[in-house]
Design brief:
71 residues; mainly alpha
Length: 71
């Protein structure tokens, strides 16, 4: 909720910049989490899910990082 509140007070370029930064951080954390579980997870089905999902997350992260670089 705090993140939504921060965004709701912004508009235009300020909103876009903050939103992209938040998305970049979220994608960095998601890739780190999924990568970790894909290598060390205890549950085989969840580990497989993490392994299968990781390429998509990495692709999304790459796109968000490109957006972040442009701001």
């Amino acid at each position: 909720q705090a993140k939504i509140n921060k965004l709701s007070n912004l508009s235009g370029a300020a909103f876009e910049e903050k939103y992209i930064k938040m998305q970049a951080e979220a994608h960095r954390k998601a890739v780190k989490l999924f990568d970790s579980y894909a290598h060390t997870g205890n549950e085989s089905e969840l580990r497989e899910f993490a392994e299968n999902t990781l390429p998509t997350l990495k692709a999304h992260k790459k796109h968000v990082m490109q957006l972040e670089e442009s701001y």
